[in-house]
Amino acid sequence: MATLEWRSPANEMAVQQFESAAQKLNLDPNVAARLKRPDRALIVSVPTRVDDGGVHVFTGYRVQHNDVLGPFKGGIRYHPDVNLGEVSALAMWMTWKCSLVGLPLGGAKGGIACDPAELSRNELQGMTRRYTAEILNFIGPEVDVPAPDMGTNEQIMAWIMDTYSQHKGFAVPGVVTGKPVAVGGTLGRREATGRGVVYTIIEAAKHLGIDLAKCSAAIQGFGNVGSVTAKELAGLGVKVLAVSDRSSAVTNGKGLPIDELIQFKEKNPRLDKFPKGEKFPGDQLLELKCDILVPAAGEMQITRENAGRLKCRIVAEGANGPTTPEADEILRDKEVFVIPDILANAGGVVVSYFEWVQDLQNFFWTEDEVNKKLREILTRAFQEVLRTSQKEKVDMRLAALMLGVSRVARAMLWRGLYA
Questions:
Q1: What CATH architecture applies to the domain 35-172?
Q2: Domain boundaries along the sequence of the chain
Q3: Is there a shared CATH topology between the 35-172 domain and the 191-344 domain?
Q4: Below-50 pLDDT ranges, the chain
Q5: Annotated catalytic residue, options 24, 73, 97, 109
Q6: Would you state the pLDDT for residue 4?
Q7: Which residues have a Cβ under 8 Å from the Cβ of 241 and sit 6 or more positions away?
Q8: 227, 265 in Cβ contact below 8 A?
Q9: For residue 3, what pLDDT is reported?
Q10: Residue 2: what pLDDT?
Q11: Would you tell me the crossing angle of helices 9-25 and 325-333 to the nearest 10 degrees?
């Protein structure tokens, strides 16, 4: 991008991916110029009273990329590395993700630069409520609907919903998704992203003629997405050889007992203390020999430096932007089947959409209904991407981007430019 304020490695990567799709689509250059940067970006100070009696001023962001298809939608991330460029990249990816799976929503993202693990419950609540107050005029059920992301959860969504509702004077459950069921959340939302990753893996295995019951997997990141993915894969008979978190990785050649591991993780912040696995450095997990690799941590984990050492058949991107464009080329040459992030991890936003619809209608579905509709949408999207990949002779990432970008561009041309 020409302007320095958006610059970050993640944002440059997102723009590079977009430009590849735009070139392949022969996209109208005026539309392309508009889509390279977000509609608007907000940077806010978040003064928070901390437990020692002082006040710490955090920096918060909300970036709204494009709403041509419907209200903005996207998570809120609490992480030390949150910055404007990263949030802008994530907002752009959300636009393509919503478009790809056919949701009437646009892309947004938000976050606060902080380490939630170092904050007490009181500090987290105070910071969250003040951040909500600062972005209050930019969000709402018909405007922009946040959701959980890395470092946030259903409790934080409940605080956002309550703060927004207190200002409005009445309950507004549709302002966020990923809430507890008790305050308007939907059944199946917490598991949706990981479950969706597995639905796309099932489709990939069918396409490749692979028997999942004879497969092994390694999962980078054991938060919400990674742990649910591990549990669902294990339920299909996949041997989960290794998982990792910020502390390290653990492996077991016979397969990790995932249910025990999840229970252990709920009580212990560090995986490396798990007694039924062997500890090894987390940065080696990606290079472990396995059939299915699930990067479910941060961005840019698979790079030109390590892509050549991957020993897997399928990469299913549970995280956003885990693979750089240079690594994509290497994986393509190695004939590794990559299920791109905007397809693989779209389950979260699909069920967030279901939650938003249920809140607007005050009519709630069963978990079976949620899961059935989720699987239908992701299976259809996977097959559309696969057909485009084969027809256009491009990899799955470019095929997914082409579908997502083309639908947004078509809507923009119909709506025109208000100037």
A1: 3-Layer(aba) Sandwich (3.40)
A2: 35-172, 191-344
A3: yes
A4: 1-2
A5: 109
A6: 67
A7: 216, 217, 218, 251, 252, 253, 255, 256, 288, 290
A8: yes
A9: 59
A10: 44
A11: 60
